[in-house]
Fold:
Amino acid sequence: MQNLLANLNPEQLAAVTLPAQSALILAGAGSGKTRVLTTRIAWLIQTGQVSPAGILAVTFTNKAAKEMAARLSAMLPINTGGMWIGTFHGLSNRLLRTHWRDAGLPQTFQILDSQDQLSAIKRLLKAANVDDEKYPARNLAYFINSAKEQGLRAQDVEAFDDYNRKMAELYALYDEQCQREGVVDFAELLLRTYELLSRNQPLREHYQSRFRHVLVDEFQDTNDLQYKWLKLLAGPRGAVFAVGDDDQSIYAFRGANVGNMAAFEQEFCKGNLIKLEHNYRSHGHILDAANTLIAHNSKRLGKNLHTDAGHGEPVRIYEASSDLQEAQWIIEEAKSLVAEGAARSDIAILYRSNAQSRVLEHALFSAGIPYRVYGGLRFFERAEIKHAIAYLQLMDNPHNDSAFLRVVNFPTRGIGARSLEQLQDAARQYGISLYAAVPYITGKAGTSLGSFVKLIEGMRFETQQLPLQEMVEVVIDKSGLIAHYRNEKEGADRIENLEQLVSAASLFVNEEGFGNDAPALLGPRARAQAGVVIAEGVEIVDADAPLPTVMSPLSAFLSHASLESGDNQAEAGEDAMQLMTVHSAKGLEFSMVFITGLEEGLFPHENSAKEDGGLEEERRLMYVAITRAMRRLYLSFSQTRMLHGQTRYNMKSRFLDELPEHALKWLAPKVQHHWFGNQRSQHASAWDDAPETGVNTIAQSLVNKGSGWRIGENVSHAKFGEGVIVNIEGSGNNARAHINFGRQGMKLLDLSVAKLEKLHTA
Ligand code: ATP
Ligand code: MG
Structure:
């Protein structure tokens, strides 16, 4: 038995070994909150205070949950499978799968991700003849989700004016539609679980007496419903161990309520409050930057971090002329880090908005550097994967109308808008799903719809005895998807992704312990053997029962597809650079971090100016970003950036001005841009010689790359008149030039489309 407590400081030790009471650990970034939480679980089990089944641990992402389970397995010689470790959504799903009947759901209920939810809402608005200018789908989605996050059903929403009354009405219709189709959205997973346990006393008491210890990481980002959910599961006797950092609360836009920390302290922890202020992650300069920045916020519970690690290296700041050049600089810098012996996975590139990843990805891809994107367009969000998933969903639950509409005519099989209208009318008239309404349609439309139904039934029949991965193989083939993409110009990638889905299914089956011969669902006796017990008329599956007891492999896989973010950019196990938004980086740490796009309007995001407290939330986000770095931190910004199809001319972020000068090192870009000279002069004194990043050579290689133009060339443009090319970036069809048109100013033009002529000067 190893000594779990050996490497803890006195405050951490006090936290890990608290008696079985509720407690709040309020602590800054990198102070060991997650480590304390994990160690406490191990300690409770090792000292026999609780069995693994008595633990409920909630983390913020699936990745974090996996890491926690892995760390526990390393600390204890036990199978972590019996513990409930997961996200709010994942754990709710587990409960609802077990108690679907009591929750009023079909056994094969399916999960809508945000994108599916939006299209379900658009469909609803259309069917109900609602003016979507007045009631845009996005607004309704927001309305519904925030109501659910406060625990409110349509009838509980206060309808204080016509607008709200209408929204509440649509909310009710939406819930009916979901129920009819057997689907639940993300917020519904939680609300349904909450309602199930509030109403069902035996079930509630079963779980309350079981989960003696409820532990929550990233507590600052819980919303009202999650708070109530925790309270209910813990019950009056459960000990809730909450760890959090108010300075890292970054989900207000999704209803996170940092006030939960104060509420929790009052309601639960009664004096069991421990602060951790020793940071073990970052070197001094990085920590100074974080502390000085966050001190600009007024609403704080107040704490400061310190480290014994020494100053370390200064925070490096780089000014790029454009987003392309910023990306090139990052790549060169990263290459030299790797050449010096860093693993690629030690390097993270963070950005504020997903849209920023495209340029970075492109540059990495061109440079042949393996990378992985977290939280961007997820594997399971790609169109071809969604199509394949829709077929699988229909086989599992034919009443999922969203899935039906997605693939009824994809690949095309002659089912037009007219036929679908007819079908939708029939479905509405009888209050049934589209699938169930097919027999009511006659004529040619009826025939084609009928053969679609036959296709689905046929696939279901053919695959019912097959293991999941073979089932997926049959489906991507028989559905016609592969054939369809074979005829498409850029279909090869999509076919590859579809094949990846087969691998994903096979990996899933192995990881979740669905044996290849696992029956779809176990019969009553097998269920009893696997630990299903009946208590006071309520069927209660013991939580140690494996997933196959409560879910078919297909249902489980479909939930996984909706809940997990897949990442397929780099091969599994391959050493890859890590790209993600700052939001997705929460709780993680990396030796070397680049924070890119530090420009006004981007970070802080322009929307933040519109909301109360918006700027402070952005600053907390910047604080999260900075505190991810252990040894080396780079901050970069760019004078121009192509975003959403437009070139933006940017000011550097105010956050850069809020950092302590002594901890910074401004890197001089070697690409000279005379026209922006004034911006830089204020930092002239702090400038050091740029290290050998190789930027110079990149700049040269960017010139002329097949664009047919060169720097210094005189040109004429139909609209702007005469000018001089000052810089060229990109190559071939992607080349863009900064051109100084004198009085008309500096323009960034796309060389492949700009109407330019060469001027031959004497
Ligand atoms: P965040 O706020 O970012 O979620 P955190 O407070 O959860 O951070 P951890 O991730 O638990 O912090 O710890 C940060 C790093 O410090 C980890 O690498 C962890 O292993 C290390 N660490 C924590 N406590 C100690 C300690 N007492 N001695 C040595 N290293 C420690
Ligand atoms: Mg943490």
